[in-house]
Amino acid sequence: MTNLPLDAFTAELQRLHAEAGQVLTAVADDTALELARVTFLGAKSGRIRQVQKGLGQVAKEDKPAAGRQFNAVKTAVEELFADAQQRIDAGASPGAVEAVDVSLPGTPLRLGRVHPLTQTIRRVAAIMGYLGFEVVEGPEVEDQWHNFEALAIPAEHPARDPLDNFYISVAQAAEPLLLRSQTSTVQIRVMEQREPPLRIVSLGRVYRPDTADATHYPMFHQVEGLLIEPGTTMAHLKSVLRSFASSFLGGDVHVRFRPSFFPFTEPSVEVDMEWNGRWIEMGGAGMVDPAVLEAVGYDPDVVSGFAFGLGVERIAARRFGVADIRDFYRNDVRFLEQFSDRGQV
Ligand code: PHE
Q1: Residue with CA nearest ligand 1 atom 12
Q2: Residue 74's domain spans which residues?
Q3: Quick check: is 200 in a domain?
Q4: Which strand (E) or helix (H) includes residue 258?
Q5: Average pLDDT of each block of 10 consecutive residues along the chain (345 residues)?
Q6: CA of 132 to the centre of ligand 1 (A)
Q7: Are the C-beta atoms of 47 and 18 separated by less than 8 Å?
């Protein structure tokens, strides 16, 4: 029986080759591979076997050509099969595209959190905001006027000693600058710019060449408050500090004033806070000295106000129960990750 033209046989072979190529490059697992093997290479009724049967129907003179074509396609399909098997054994996905199984459980992301000192700064700023204080900022590199002179700290004052400050060398004849040793500098900067009434709070870094220990560090943070309003008294100062402390630490916090001295406040006090039965020194405060008001161009006979400066590290240590402030700067994740910032601003 010779009724199959060579063209038709060739076309049939090409179809087989194309289909096998499509299927075998896409199979992704052993089951699909086995199915493809039976479909194409199956000994009894696989597609190759079927096409081979057609070979007998090709005219005698076309047989050698048809046979060569058949063998070439058979080899090609066997190679496609071997490639697919190798790919599946190696565990790779078909083609170049990675399969994504959206139902697989996710890998937990390691979430960072806000540093406990930053958390503290933000909370203090928020609470002072409720009390009507606006947050302002000042530079960390200061001139002598804002860090000392305007704050009634004259040239001969021991607070200006080079051993107690980080002076910065500048061009010859220029006045030495320094890393600010207190945030009281910001009081001056704001009063120079604005007219009373004022309620401002400034939170930031200050620098002093202290030896690091459990309660000291050459860089630390302060929160400075300044209120300038007619009729201000020490009683207002105490109630603002008490409201702040109660909001921050929670519950009933007692505030105690001890007489002290700062060149820029008169009278001056040390501020202690009692919480859970323990008194802690938090900073200094007082009524703004008339000399300071004059330095910024205010009339001390008309204007009065109070100022305070508290240590952020002390507030944070008290709140979080931290015994050594150096832990705040070690950047040890095991320490830092204990302070949840959930629900924080
Ligand atoms: N600047 C003072 C200090 O660093 C604290 C202070 C601020 C005292 C404001 C009085 C008023 O110690």
Answers
A1: 284
A2: 6-89
A3: yes
A4: strand 254-262
A5: 83 90 90 91 90 89 91 92 89 64 84 91 97 98 97 96 92 86 98 97 97 96 97 96 93 93 98 90 97 97 96 93 95 89 54
A6: 21
A7: no
